[in-house]
Amino acid sequence: MTTSDIIYQELQSNLEQEHLMLSKDLKHEMQLNTLVPSALAIENADLNNLIMMAKSSFIPNLFDLAIRMEKVDAAVYSIKLGMYGLCVDCEEEIEESELKADPAQPRCHACRDHSRYHHD
């Protein structure tokens, strides 16, 4: 196993842990802000619906949680698809240092610079 493989495994593990934590935090914050009628409704809700409700709530903390959850969720699914660490725009490898800074980073530095007005 190469150093890069070990680093990717660590990043993937961190992403999966962050995904679980964000999901719990999002549900908890939604309960605190009574955006959904009951705790059971929150537990049974689809993650995409929770994210949509949180983003449309205009509550800054919920909005920020939802945005991060979307990004982490996409990264977790890219792992399942075998595409983790590849830029969603150009499909080149994202620099290891950039993934260490943010394991959910979907774009390489060049694509972020090129399209910063369209994606951030």
Automatic annotation (TrEMBL):
A zinc finger (dksA C4-type) spans 87-111. Gene3D superfamilies: DksA, coiled-coil domain. It comes from the Bacteria. This is Conjugal transfer protein TraR. It comes from Photobacterium indicum.
